[in-house]
Write a structure and sequence with these properties.
The complex is a heterodimer. Chain A has 8 helices and 12 strands. Chain A is α/β, with parallel strands linked by helices. In chain A, the strands form 3 sheets. Chain A has a 5-stranded parallel β-sheet with strand order 2-1-3-4-5, with helices on both faces. Chain A has a 4-stranded antiparallel β-sheet with strand order 6-7-8-9, covered by helices on one side. In chain A, strands 10-12-11 form a 3-stranded antiparallel β-sheet. In chain A, a hairpin with a 5-residue loop joins strand 8 and strand 9. In chain A, helix 2 runs parallel beside helix 3 and helix 6 crosses helix 8. Chain B is α+β, with helices and mostly antiparallel strands. Among the domains of chain B are: 148 residues, 2-Layer Sandwich (Beta-Lactamase), CATH 3.30.450; 89 residues. In chain B, 51% of the residues lie in helices and 19% in strands. In chain B, the strands form 4 sheets. In chain B, strands 4-3-7-6-5 form a 5-stranded antiparallel β-sheet. In chain B, strands 9-11-12-14-13 form a 5-stranded mixed β-sheet. In chain B, strand 13 and strand 14 form a beta hairpin. The longest helix of chain B has 52 residues. The radius of gyration of chain B is 51 Å and the shape is rod-shaped. Classes of the chains: A alpha/beta, B alpha+beta. Chains A and B meet through helix 1, helix 4, strand 5 and helix 5 of A and helix 3, helix 4, helix 5 and helix 6 of B.
């Protein structure tokens, strides 16, 4: 899962980004409204955390521009401006959630998870596909027999993306887009290595290789 | 005497009455003196004729030749009289005098005296007495004419003039009133529009009307605009301040969470920080209260559904249904942001506590009442009072009831209203009723 964090306070942004990375998200940061609008339009992010008071272009205008362009990425507004009139304006501009500052990290991550869950059409809080149960807190996977396996950061990101997009053909570039951040290495060979390691941990036949197309995570064996 | 119209009518009436009185008096006096001058000229001519008629006859006798006298002097009590008075007390009186006499002061030849006398039968006489010397005799001649018929005519003229002036007076006062009323129609409209601004039907008043009224409407508009801009500016500044303060606060909250300290210590620091940010929040929100005045007015049928939609989205994880009773269609004379803050906090609290259902009712009577009830656990009687006290919080875990209701209380106090917390009869949870008085009857 790759997130876009738009926050003009760079220190706070660095802190939030660090927290989110620890929870297994790839995070791109920007502090400028115009850059944020551009990055959002690339449609490689699974969710956006948006501050409203931004240099360049106000957050609400950025959000409206995205929605006008048909972008459906879920957006959580994280702002100090939390009067109810402002919340109503933010939600009407197309935000999916609104969190006032100061906030607790757990609350942000809980809301973010809920947002991502809703956007992938999942009803329950648990992520369970193909007999596998992903523990998003501890970044482990539980097998049908009850055994638990620890996952590395990238493995966790990859598996979560597969599980939230089960039964769909996912191209290598799409997978790298949603797993890596902007400036990290994005060699498709490296992805193949991670897919192989993941297969070692969860079983060979769950992730199917479609030659020339990418991979497919099967919800039923 | 506060009515401009009455003041103008009274002023005009006094002035008109004064002018008319002077006019009437002046014209009557002028006519009277003109008539008297005319009578006097006639008396002079008659005197000359009488003196001519007095002289020696062909037989050498000096006497008054009656044939040469105007017949009017022969008719009894005709109003035209003469008396010759000689040195030797002999008198010749006109036949018209009958057996009356008139007082006569002798004059030396060449002297003339004009006088008013009481004549026979109450007649008012104008008398001219002059001294003459003719045919060796010195005598005084009095010629008099009755002024009563002329006086009567002048009196009639005076009454007619008075009637005319009274008519003119009434017409002028009515006409002035008509013009004023027409002028004041503009004022009525300006007043109506200002009322509409107060009610929230419009933001500015139309700049119409005569040039005397237009500066007023322009000024009212300028003032309205200024107040709106000032409110907007101060809210903007508060938003910026909140932004500037809460960024570092968020950072500190995060830093504390990541601190290599005991869980106990972290909790203590977090609690302190929460207290600071709650205080900042409360003061900033208090400062944002616009109160009654200009600003965007609250339009329940418009703004409430938007708020409900936002709340439903924010609490969609909890799956709570918010029922809304019929909403009044007219705008209420309260600031839109204030009302959204009020209802937002009330409903947000309810969302945190409710099991599945919330109800909002907006009732417009002689005051305006918002009722928010939920089907949550509710609150004890004693705790209900504590809820409304400054910054008190019942539950630190679900932050809200305390701070949210404290802000609601601040808002309601500012609007001169009241808050009531009871148990909801039909939903079983908490019911909060807010009464806000309307600034004037709607």
């Amino acid at each position: 899962m790759r997130l876009l964090l738009v926050e003009d306070d760079t220190k706070l942004a660095a802190g939030i980004a660090a927290d989110l990375r620890r929870e297994g998200y790839a995070v791109d940061c920007t502090e400028d409204g115009i850059e944020a609008e551009y990055l959002g339009r690339e449609e490689i992010h699974d969710a956006v955390i948006l501050d409203l008071g931004l240099p360049g272009k106000p957050g609400l205008d950025v959000l409206r521009a995205w929605r006008k362009a048909g972008l459906s990425t879920p957006v959580l507004i994280l702002t100090a401006r939390d009067a109810w009139s402002e919340r109503v304006a933010g939600l009407r501009a197309g935000a999916d959630d609104y969190l006032g500052k100061p906030f607790h990290t757990e609350e942000l991550s809980a809301r973010l998870q809920a947002l991502l869950r809703r956007s992938t059409g999942r009803a329950s809080a648990e992520l369970a596909v193909a007999g596998l149960l992903l523990d998003e807190e501890r970044q482990t996977v539980r097998h049908p027999d009850g055994a638990e396996t620890q996952l590395t950061g990238i493995e966790f990101r990859l598996l979560r993306y597969f599980m939230t997009h089960a039964d769909r053909v996912l191209s290598k570039s799409r997978l790298t887009d949603h797993i890596y951040e902007e400036d990290r290495g994005r060699d498709s060979n490296v992805l193949e290595v991670y897919v192989r390691r993941l297969r070692d941990k969860i079983g060979r036949d769950v992730i199917e290789t479609r030659r020339g197309q990418g991979y497919l995570f099967r919800s039923r064996r | 005497m506060n009515s401009l119209e009455r003041r103008l009518v009274v002023g005009l009436s006094v002035l008109l009455l004064l002018i008319f009185a002077v006019l009437l008096w002046g014209s009557v006096t002028a006519v009277r003196s003109l008539a008297e001058a005319h009578v006097l000229t006639r008396l002079e001519h008659d005197a000359e004729a009488l003196v001519t008629a007095f002289g020696p006859t062909k037989r050498g006798q000096v006497r008054l030749r009656e044939g040469r006298i105007t017949p009017i002097y022969q008719q009894p009590l005709s109003g035209h009289y003469f008396i010759f008075a000689f040195e030797d007390d002999a008198r010749i009186r006109s036949r018209s005098l009958w057996d009356e006499d008139l007082p006569l002061e002798r004059q030396n030849p060449g002297d003339v005296v004009v006088d008013r006398l009481q004549g026979p039968g109450g007649q008012q006489l104008l008398a001219r007495t002059a001294g003459y010397e003719k045919a060796g005799q010195r005598f005084s001649l009095l010629v008099a004419e009755d002024l009563t018929p002329m006086s009567r005519q002048i009196d009639r003229l005076q009454w007619m003039g008075l009637a005319l002036l009274v008519c003119a007076f009434v017409v002028m006062v009515l006409f002035q009133r008509f013009i004023l009323r027409r002028g004041f129609v503009t004022m009525d409209r300006v007043q109506q529009e200002i009322q509409q601004v107060t009610r929230g039907d419009r933001q500015q008043i139309e700049e119409l009307g005569p040039s005397e009224v237009r500066p007023l409407t322009t000024e009212v508009n300028r003032l309205l605009g200024q107040q709106q801009r000032r409110l907007q500016r101060s809210r903007q500044a508060l938003g910026n301040l909140a932004h500037a303060l809460k960024g570092p606060l968020s950072l500190m909250t995060r830093d504390i969470e990541a601190m290599p300290a005991s869980a106990d210590e972290r909790r203590r620091l977090t609690a302190r920080l929460s207290r600071i940010s709650a205080l900042i929040d409360r003061e900033l929100k208090r400062a944002r209260i616009a109160g009654q005045g200009p600003g965007q007015h609250f339009h329940p049928s418009h703004h409430v559904p938007e708020l409900i939609e936002a709340l439903t989205q924010l609490h969609q994880e909890r799956g709570i249904s918010i029922g809304v009773g019929p909403l009044p269609d007219q705008p209420l004379p309260f600031d839109y942001e204030d009302m959204l803050e009020l209802l937002g906090n009330l409903l947000d609290n309810a969302c945190k506590w409710a099991t599945s259902k919330i109800e909002l009712k907006v009732t417009v009577g002689h005051d305006i009442m918002f009722t928010v009830s939920d089907d949550g656990p509710g609150v004890d009687r004693e705790a209900r009072e504590a809820l409304l006290k400054r910054g008190s919080r019942l539950d630190e875990q679900i932050d809200g009831h305390g701070l949210g209701l404290a802000i609601v209380k601040d808002l309601v106090d500012d609007y001169g209203g009241s808050v009531e917390i009871t148990r909801s009869d039909h939903l079983g949870g908490l019911e909060v009723r807010v009464h806000l008085p309307t600034p004037q009857a709607i």
